[in-house]
Amino acid sequence: xxxxxxxxxxxxxxxxxxxxxxxxxxxxxxxxxxxxxxxxxxxxxxxxxxxxxxxxxxxxxxxxxxxxxxxxxxxxxxxxxxxxxxxxxxxxxxxxxxxxxxxxxxx
Length: 107
Description:
The chain has helices at about 15-20, 30-45, 60-70, 95-100; strands at about 50-55, 75. By secondary structure, it is mostly helical. The chain has four helices and two strands. The longest helix has 13 residues, at about 30-45.
């Protein structure tokens, strides 16, 4: 039997649109982010999904719950899937991080 792993990123947030680093900051999905998750849920509707693993962040949980609408599976929260802590760079725009902390930014 062949096992597949499908990796999914959460839908769009306001911070994503603005080019900001969310890190572990809680942020909500935008209307477009919800639409993205709904479209992905429809695309994955014919896939056999045994479980959904997600980070504890609300944006990831919301995306996972939308995907689960097409499947009767548990969502398992995995703390190790949490986003990195961006520290002082949290909610900064990427260009500002490059300017203020050029040695920290790696792309």
